[in-house]
Amino acid sequence: MTDRFDLTGYSDGDVDTNDSTVRSLESLAAERYSRRQTLFGGIGATTMALFGTTMLTACDETEVDSSPIVVPGAVAATSAGRLVTLTAQTAADVISGSWAQTSGEPVQLVKVDATTSTFIAPAVSQPSDLTFTYSVTTHRGANASGTSTVRVSPAVLGFAAVAKNLNDVVTVPAGYTVTVLTRLGDPLAAGVSAYSNNGTDGDFDKRIGDHGDAFAFYGLSAAGARDDNSNTRGLMVQNHENLSVQYLHPNGPTNVSSGPRPQAEALKEMMAHGVSITEYVDAGNRKWGYVPNSPLNRRITPGTQMQFAGAAAASAMLRTAYSPDGTRGRGTINNCAHGVTPWATYLTAEENWAGYFRRDNSGSGTDNTLRSPEELVALRRYGVNSNTGNYAWSTVQSADTLYTRWDARVKGASAVEDFRNEPNQFGWVVELDPYDPNSTPRKRTSLGRFGHEGAFVQAAAGKKLAVYMGDDARREYLYKFVSSATFTEADGRSANRLAMGDKYLDTGTLYVARFEADGTGRWLPLVFGQVPDRPATSNTPAYSFADQADILINARLAGDALGATPMDRPEWTAGNPLTGEIYLTLTNNNASNRPLNDTNAANPRHYNDPYGPANRAQYGNPNGHIIRLRENGDDPAATSFRWDIYLFGADSADAGPNVNLSGLTAENDFSSPDGLYFSRETNPAGKVKPLMWIQTDDGALSDRTNNMMLAAMPGSVGDGGAQTITNTGADGATATQTTFVGAPATVATLRRFLVGPVECEITGIDTTPDGRTVFVGIQHPGEDGTPDAPSSNWPDTQGNANAPATARPRSAIVAITKDDGGVIAL
Question: Where is this region: Disordered (predicted)?
Fold first, then answer.
């Protein structure tokens, strides 16, 4: 008896018109079907490949995902990152069968059963054919096989854009699932009670903190050691930026504006800051959860001991009653964005720390009269000017220095008798080892002190290591640190991780950026002897730097002295893993800080974006933009670069041509870009055509939509050109500004992937190494509500239309997976 694969006619409709040397799928199919291969061994009739209609048009800009099912003898098409299923139907006398790859870019075949295997389509730069053979053996000992071809095209965005909305859920495209993971208050140690979420909970040094911001996933092996390739177990290291303080207490905080504060309330608020380290586990098939009592769980709070390292360590400016020699400190606070080192440590960045300190700074006999002129210049430049301090922690009636340290007034005869220098102990990048719960975090002073938003690390073997950092405040600067040591791959694998930080982050040169009007830029070194005095202004006298530690501690003043370019709130930095180009989000600016007559090429817009039904005016640059730069010679240590503006935020419904310079539409318009992330190089989304994620922290467009996350496939610096725009002021005056714009966005290169719940900010993103799970942070949902009337009830509302209206909102991390198991967004 002779059995055969029974094939029917097939027409894909995909004729490759871009490369004449690649045969069309139609011709391959016709050839295969004409052979009518006769295969022995008792195989029954097979099914044909099943295709979704959009999968067949892989070059269509509006394509959404469809993953092919391929049978022996079939010819199929897909694109990088998509799940492909190879399957067959066999007769009863077949005793074994298996799929094997016979040609093309190697893939990992995952055997489901005797007839079915799957794989993720690999990254390719041009259409490429992969062939697979299915072989069987029958009870009679006969063998037979059939071969299938899968053509893989370069990666494309593979989801329908999510519409702007004001819903109180995390909205994602069809075909994706959202799972809520760790939330504010979730326990991180044995014996800690479940979170009641009514304001009565304590023990926040053993719970997930509030306002989760940036985070990173660090893989774990089965033995609990570092494993950079683990997709099923890892440590989530997350920053906690601030508080929705009204929800932390039964009826909101007591005396928060002036004090005295109850000690228990202040302690709870303090411990809800910092960093959390939490073990995550995939229970199978990307069903994620966390381990509440993992021995690797850890909370780092404002009370955790720290060590100062780098060029400013032991400076007289860091000496306090707690650290008379200026080498130690306690805690980290207002942690925003982050960085990940090649040796697998975590860099957490201290941002809006300045407002936490108390200073009576006006009138005679106050702290101002006890300070030197230089101290006053520095304190004012960093905004350490509060008469109470955020949350008024210093007003707790206790002699415990955990509370008195927030009082930065001069009280003793010298700095070692009080906490006048405590503000100088904050504003740093802090390095910690996620894998060692007993390690002491290090504050890396050579990276400078300012309102750190993040610290993106660019490392390549044989080159100097660079760290790119934004200073998140209006009219602040972009910085870069370049190591003295040349990076080696062996150091990236070192088990002595903090020692690698000592090697690469403590010795080097800090630079600040100047963006020139001709599309070039320069890195200006912040080196003692090369930085002139900061000139006097109408409000402050001149400032002379005493030494290198002074320059690092007062990096903002040094940037002023060198003439760095004031930017529109420099936030996250991220690097394209293929090109090495650096991207920087510039969230927004207002008219008082970016007036009509004070734009520049790198911050070129001044306009109005009317808000809400009343059309409230929003002049300045309310929607922000994303700038990118490419180092000369693609060398991280270069002192010059080229730049352009990759994207301009805009409301596509209202913005004219001088505002919507990137050609945004309803599918991809956005405002106030904040978080940035490029997919990992370990999966197709991070290769050949790397995928970039953009997260927003918006107030200008929030009348029409909650904050969002977009997926982008950016080009390169110089893919657009020079453009002169006309800006308009509130009085009708106009002014022109020439800038450099990137190629216009299209739905093929930029698409909205997610919209968050009410009043949230989208903060933090990472993926598993295989790109099949993306973790996303949702910060401060319902931030404008009250304990009695929360304005959001998320995450209780996720998947629950009947969530109680009294449920207090909680910041949380969610896992997003693709229902068919493919790489996210492709």
Answer: 589-619, 778-810
